[in-house]
Automatic annotation (TrEMBL):
InterPro entries: LipoPS_assembly_LptC-rel, LPS_export_LptC, LptC
Organism annotation: Candidatus Electrothrix aestuarii
Cell membrane found in the keyword field: yes
GO cellular component, one term: outer membrane-bounded periplasmic space
Listed name of the protein: LPS export ABC transporter periplasmic protein LptC
């Protein structure tokens, strides 16, 4: 008895195949896409960028699950590409484990997502509150990959017991080491 059911199993595919001229047209019409294919619209959709403009923005960056940057901006928008964020009236905090945060203020800023590069422009002020130090510059770059703050122009650092004026400054955030180029003037 079991063998006869198994032998009848081949009847189902043969029946579907034999009756296909009756139902094939209806199924084909049902599965046909509606509307026409617009090649120009498809190309425009694929090339579309993700542009935005936002007010009162807070951006937080983390490294290995630990928050390293908190950036507040009065306004943020996409830059030349959708992988660049342009900001105005920037107020940033750099959090380092076991130390007080470093505060950075500037009029403008850019963040490049692909290479994790933060650029702060116009009246940049860095405040290290526990050391009572303030640094002034017109341009500052932060590279997250190697944790470096770089000011290619003139810098001025004021502390409780010194004033320093120099050209280019490289500051290694992870070790706290400074490197100054060009003429360095220190008043104690």
């Amino acid at each position: 008895m079991i063998g006869s059911y198994r032998n009848l199993l081949w009847v189902i595919p043969v029946g579907v195949l034999a009756t296909s001229p009756l139902w094939k047209g209806y199924v084909g019409d049902f599965l046909k896409p509606r509307g026409g294919y617009d090649e120009v619209a498809e190309r425009a959709y694929q090339e579309q960028s993700q542009d935005f403009v936002m007010d009162d923005v807070v951006i937080a960056f983390t490294t290995e699950g630990v928050q390293t940057w908190t950036i507040k901006a009065k306004q943020a928008q996409t830059g030349e590409t959708d992988r660049e964020i342009q900001m105005t009236d920037v107020d940033a905090l750099y959090h380092k484990k076991g130390e007080s945060p470093i505060s950075i203020i500037s009029k403008k800023g850019k963040y490049h997502m692909d290479d994790q590069h933060l650029t702060l422009i116009d009246d940049v002020v860095i405040v290290k509150p526990l050391q009572y130090e303030e640094m002034y510059s017109d341009l500052l770059h932060y590279y997250d990959t190697n944790k470096m703050l770089i000011s290619p122009g003139d810098v001025e650092i004021k502390g409780p017991k010194f004033n320093l004026k120099a050209g280019r400054m490289d500051y290694d955030v992870s070790s706290g080491a400074y490197d100054f180029n060009n003429r360095v003037e220190v008043v104690l």
